Amino acid sequence: xxxxxxxxxxxxxxxxxxxxxxxxxxxxxxxxxxxxxxxxxxxxxxxxxxxxxxxxxxxxxxxxxxxxxxxxxxxxxxxxxxxxxxxxxxxxxxxxxxxxxxxxxxxxxxxxxxxxxxxxxxxxxxxxxxxxxxxxxxxxxxxxxxxxxxxxxxxxxxxxxxxxxxxxxxxxxxxxxxxxxxxxxxxxxxxxxxxxxxxxxxxxxxxxxxxxxxxxxxxxxxxxxxxxxxxxxxxxxxxxxxxxxxxxxxxxxxxxxxxxxxxxxxxxxxxxxxxxxxxxxxxxxxxxxxxxxxxxxxxxxxxxxxxxxxxxxxxxxxxxxxxxxxx
Length: 327
Hints:
Elements: H1 8-15, E1 30-34, E2 37-40, H2 41-57, H3 67-87, H4 94-108, H5 111-120, H6 125-146, H7 154-163, E3 169-170, E4 173-182, H8 189-207, H9 212-219, E5 230-235, H10 241-249, E6 259-261, E7 264-274, E8 277-278, H11 281-311, E9 314-316
Antiparallel strand pairs: 1-2, 1-9, 3-8, 4-5, 4-7, 6-7
């Protein structure tokens, strides 16, 4: 299982997009030291950009959150964990470092363009590799030294389920497949009619006994087409009203009339339905175990970081350095 706090690949992919787009502060400016280990402004700026992108993806306004303080804390924590890793004799996987650099280079349009983007942010390729090594060491410490003590036993999963059954209550769900023939909302009447007729013809083929999943692979213009149109189980509220009404009106094995939504024209086949109620333990135990494991790891990592922060010597360097966590 991966550490929930230090997913290096995600960091790399985020850093190489918006984080390197604009010049930062003067090159190689040290803004703080963590136990005498320098932290450069460019490292902090990349973490800020990564956080800003993450916040935007969650639909929040980065301007309303103190990203500077969060980024500073994240960078400090990564260095503290990496330092502990070195004390334990752990070393970064150089093959992983190079693979991550190659991924970053591919995203940037080549190694030379990556180097140029890094230079705009006051960073060399060697220093970028150093940041990756630090993050990988932090990951390694969490995975090898902390996670073994955070194992969740089967009995704990069952106990949580039994005492929190209401958390597993779900609305009625159905398992359906669909075939989509696209028609943009602003399309003219002739274009829409052509799409509708195409959907009608596909429906007729399905009603005559052709395999619906194969039909979807052949004809559907939606993202689920390659999966045979499989949408899995879903609640009514997850779909647009017209689609949900049609799907929930079907019996298993039935095929709907052609349904129009803002995406185009759909033909739906119902596979199964589950009544509303509390999900059985066997259906949720794997996901519940993963959730509880992740929460336990967060607790263990947080406790270790609290201990390391108390012992650490963290100092700001320069006139406009980032605020030191805890001050």
